[in-house]
Write a structure and sequence with these properties.
- The chain has 103 residues and is mainly β.
- It has one domain (2-72, 86-97).
- The protein has no helices and 8 strands.
- The protein has strands at 2-5, 11-16, 19-21, 27-32, 37-40, 45-50, 54-58, 95-97.
- An 8-stranded antiparallel beta sheet has the order 1-2-3-4-5-6-7-8, with no helix packed on it.
- Strand 2 and strand 3 form a beta hairpin.
- The chain is globular, with a radius of gyration of 13 Å.
- The two termini are 19 Å apart.
């Protein structure tokens, strides 16, 4: 299990067994290992891990226009707690924070 954060250091997701989950535990996406990206529940590009633990959206990603299909809902993994704020990393060229409607 890995805690994932936005550029401001806020805890926004958990990476558990190849699945992306909201801090509350609901399944919000899937990891595409071959591409190194996360897709949302509809199969659209969601983002990727930057600087070890930041979930960010790459504006020029070639995966933005691809539909990977529906991989199903893996349910709720429960709440792993709040690891606190991990500090801001500032802006990274070409990346922006992932939209987080699940929070």
């Amino acid at each position: 299990m890995e805690f994932l954060f936005n550029s401001k250091g806020q805890h926004i997701a958990n990476f558990v067994n190849g699945q992306l989950h909201a801090p509350s535990g609901q399944n919000i996406g899937h990891f595409m290992e071959g591409q190194g990206i996360f897709i949302d529940m509809s199969g659209r590009y969601l983002g990727e891990i930057v600087q070890n633990n930041r979930l960010m959206y790459y504006r020029s990603s070639p995966h933005r226009s691809v539909s990977y299909g529906n991989y199903g809902n893996y349910g709720n993994v429960g709440n792993y707690g709040n690891p606190g704020n991990h500090g801001s990393i500032g802006s990274i060229g070409g990346y922006e924070d992932v939209e987080i409607p699940w929070l």
